[in-house]
Amino acid sequence: MQKERNFGLDLLRAIAITLVVVSHLTYVFVQESDHPIILMIRTLGAVGVDLFFVLSGFLIGGILLKGIENDRTRFPDLITFWKRRWWRTLPNYFLMLLVNIAIYHLFTKELPIDIGSFFVFTQNFAHPQSEFFTESWSLSIEEYAYLVLPLLMFCVLAVFRTNGKLVFLYTTLSVVFVAFLLKYQFYLNTEILTYKNWSGMFRKVVIYRLDSIYFGFLLVYVMRQKMDFFKRHKFKALVLGGLTFLAVHLSIFMLNLQPELHPGFFVFLYLPLISLSCALAFPFAVHMKRSAGFNPLVYFVSTRSYAIYLVNFSAILLCIHYLIDLETAALALKLVLSVVYLGMTIGISNLIYNYFEKPILDYRDRNIR
């Protein structure tokens, strides 16, 4: 199984989930903080999700592009694509949704007011999501990304039966442009008060973030068209991506850029630049050779990353918050709790992967090809 996987992409996935978990770990020690180190770690956690988005778009776009190249462009092929995606994403999601409902009811004796929206992924479609099952915001974006653009591509191909690769490119660019128009509408009509408001009202809302996954579609298209070029310049691309990332965040720090004072930067530039900096790491990653020392660890973290993402915050960290007043807890206790948090995250995620997720994926691979 490990030999069939791309080590570099697994490494990117492992880095992304590590950034997310480490950023959440800071909440064991402090809730609200303006300390530069805490802000940096939490920013990197947000970047981890953006890296997941680009990686998802790269992989799913690659599947669609390969299907187009092999003339698998009829609606039964689209249904098969959706079935395989849903068997991959929905079982874990609904399992953890039910777990989170149980935890919420256990500690509050109530049910979330908007609980129904989480079953149909509308909890953050065009408005901020509630505090319940907070990490699910990214799953909504993923699910709509799998629906919107593939359906549009197959409809265009069904009508025109033209060059499939160009349909892939132009439909992707069209949807990205529509996303830009929606962002412009947000920019004109919404007052941003704080970074937290910007994150809730914009960064975590489906209609403004679909393009973050479709950048991955564009990435895989360009890399396939210019394969030799990117292979020759993979290290330069990696360095350029790192410099772009540093330049963006140094500019924010040195110029004191804030969403309430510079909304245009945060609406139109910040997230696309982060996606671009992540994308520039892919030419290097896809051509990485396996590391005998790190491959087992990377494989372990990568394969369990989806379970880790769904488990670590709402199901474990918030339970700790419910049970213990971390605001007044001693540092020694917080250190112990941080070890407990990490241990439970890894242990529970491993159980979910081995006894729930992997059997479902094996069933999918046997029956939906």
TrEMBL record:
Residues 7-352 form the Acyltransferase domain. GO terms for molecular function: acyltransferase activity, transferring groups other than amino-acyl groups. It comes from the Bacteria. Signal peptide: none annotated. Keywords: Membrane, Transmembrane, Transmembrane helix. One of its GO terms (cellular component) is membrane. The chain crosses the membrane at residues 12-30, 36-65, 86-107, 144-160, 167-186, 206-223, 235-255, 267-286, 306-324, 336-356. Pfam families: Acyl_transf_3. The keyword Lipid metabolism does not apply. GO terms for biological process: polysaccharide biosynthetic process. This is Peptidoglycan/LPS O-acetylase OafA/YrhL. It comes from Gelidibacter sediminis.
